[in-house]
Amino acid sequence: MFRIRTSVVGLAASAAFFAIGSQAFAEGEVNIYSYRQPELIQPVLDAFTKETGITTNVLFLDKGLVERISAEGVNSPADVILTVDIGRLVEARDGGVTQPLSNEIINKDIPAHYRDPAGEWFGLTTRGRVVYASKERVSDTAITYEDLADPKWKGRICIRDGQHSYNIGLFASMIAHHGADYTETWLRGFKDNLARKPDGNDRSQAKAIMAGECDISLGNTYYVGLMMTNEKDPEEKEWAAAIKVLFPNSADRGTHVNISGMALAKNAPNKDNAVKFMEFLASGEAQEIYAEQVFEYPVMPGAKTSDIVASFGTIKPDTLSLADIAANRKAASELVDKVGFNDGPTQ
Predict the structure, then answer these.
(1) For residues 12 and 272, what is the distance between their CA atoms, to the nearest angstrom?
(2) Is the dihedral angle over the CA atoms 26, 29, 30, 35 positive or is it negative?
(3) What sign for the dihedral angle of Cα 197, 200, 205, 211?
(4) Phi-psi bin for 254: left (phi > 0), alpha (psi -120 to 50), beta?
(5) How many CB atoms lie within 10 A of CB 146?
(6) How buried is 346 (Cβ within 10 angstroms: 0-12 exposed, 13-18 middle, 19+ buried)?
(7) pLDDT (tens digit, 9 = 90+) per residue, 6-22?
(8) Residues 6+ apart with CB under 8 A from 27
(9) What share of the chain is helix, strand, coil (3-state, %, to 5)?
């Protein structure tokens, strides 16, 4: 009978836990460095251990993951990196803390546009960058990202920091689709339609819509699920109830999506177990568990979404390669500054 033990360790304890020669390197374990909070990944870790008997040891960091692995060098205990956002996956690759993996099982389960062409990272679940719209004041049932620059929305849009990674991903996709000149003009129009300076997070945009401060905003799909089910702060349920989800560009190229993903650490000491873990995460079973827990969409075609996520409506994901989007992130960031997006609307 397999012994199941999953450990979650903080920064203070990690050095001792992952010390060279410790039991963390024993056969049957895999060490995971994660930007995702432990409770969000626990169900899929439990399922993996139940199936394989391999123990998962998790080090959660809210920042500095790449720097930490770099500092640990060849003695780093990290086997697998779990994170959200294409930007952080590319940061890990460009920071030299990942290694390429060519694996038929993983490549079969994860579509090509959701993985690095060189096998340095792989997407597991997606979240749409959608429009939150007031149920009371917005009658529109369809919208495009291009529409956000339409004067009809003047003074009616709120959004978080334009330099936030979620927005940079969308702006980079606009460059990929339309080019930098178009995107600059679009960003200027978008900026002039803002009701206020960019501020807060995605959830607070829903709160602002409920309060009548704006009529639409950009937000990630999974925040809607988090608000709908928030028993700790039930007022968030009211924010969610005040909005409807519009999936931009459903009639043409599809809605921009970002990913949560994984990568094989450069010096993985338990490489065989790491690959087994990554193969498991790529499977339909694991994607469905993972996606349900975090209110996201599995990347595997045909994998089931949770009932809550399905209640948002049907998403048609943009199939533009995330590698192409990532290549435009720097240019997108520069445009945000160039047009003064974070200064808010021109008075």
Answers:
(1) 28
(2) negative
(3) negative
(4) left
(5) 17
(6) exposed
(7) 344 444 334 444 443 33
(8) none
(9) 45, 20, 35
Instruction: Pull the structure tokens for residue 70.
Output: 């770099």
Tell me the residue ranges of DSSP E strands in 155-282. 157-158, 216-220, 243-246, 257-265
Hey, which residues does 60 pair with through a beta bridge?
34
Query: Residue 265: which residues within 8 A CB-CB, separation 6 or more?
Result: 33, 69, 76, 78, 79, 80, 81, 97, 98, 99, 274
Average pLDDT value for residue range 290-297: 92
Q: Are 183 and 175 in contact (CB under 8 A)?
A: yes
Distance in angstroms (rounded) separating the CA atoms of residues 266 and 271: 10
Q: Where are the beta strands (DSSP E) in the chain?
A: 6-9, 29-34, 55-60, 80-84, 98-99, 122-134, 157-158, 216-220, 243-246, 257-265, 297-298
* CA–CA dist 227, 206 (Å, integer): 9
What local confidence, expressed as pLDDT, does residue 10 receive? 41
- List Cβ neighbours of 252 (8 Å cut-off, separation of 6 or more): 144
Task: Produce one character per residue of 88-107: b if its CB has 16 or more CB atoms within 10 Å, e if not.
Answer: bbbbbbeeebbbebebeebe
- For residues 23 and 19, what is the distance between their CA atoms, to the nearest angstrom? 9
- The answer to whether the beta carbons of residues 49 and 42 sit under 8 Å apart is no
What are the residues facing 80 on neighbouring strands? Answer: 32, 264
Model pTM? Answer: 0.87
Q: Determine the residue type at 245.
A: V
pLDDT, tens digit, 9 for 90 and up, residues 16-45: 444 433 344 445 999 999 998 888 899 999
Is 222:295 a contact under the CB 8 Å cutoff?
yes
